[in-house]
Amino acid sequence: MTKIKSDNRGFTGLEAAIVLIAFVVVAAVFTYVIFGVKGQDINPPVTRVTEPAAPSIQVIGNVYGYGTGTPGSMEINRIQLNVGLAPKASSLDLTKMIIVVSQPDVATITQLTYAGSLSTSTFTVEEAGTTNELRTLSGQTQGTVLIELPANLKANGKINIELRPPGSQTLSFSRATDATIYSTQILS
Questions:
Q1: Positions of the chain with pLDDT under 70
Q2: What pTM value is reported for the model?
Q3: Which of 10, 40, 107, 118 is deepest in the core (most CB within 10 A)?
């Protein structure tokens, strides 16, 4: 009978290889879990969807120009527009509002402040449909803004107006005159 010799050297190398592979796999899984979770925020920051701020004031209806001079050579010297609060806007102190008027054709920019009397450096606001001074715009109240232009607006002229209410976004708009100016007309 032959005797079978057992040699454990090969078996020990195989065991070492299996243990090494097991350590590498465990380390890889552990690293993936640690860095995978760390790369993701468990509590991501709360993001709010916000809409761009809208002006608290809006122009209601048309913008009117009032002409001065003789027929055929009239120029607009006064602007009238009605304003009201935008939906969901809170009351607005008109005495703190600033109006900027610019006329590109004559290169003038004028900053107007609220006053009880109209001039080329001030504007007035009356409660729409009356001659009562309006200092605060609230609820459904509408105000009629009157602006005396520092430089008359000529035929085919352009005017830019910015309403800057306190604590709100500016409302900007442009209007132009027609080729013929009348004593009262809608600016387009």
A1: 1-12, 37-53
A2: 0.69
A3: 118
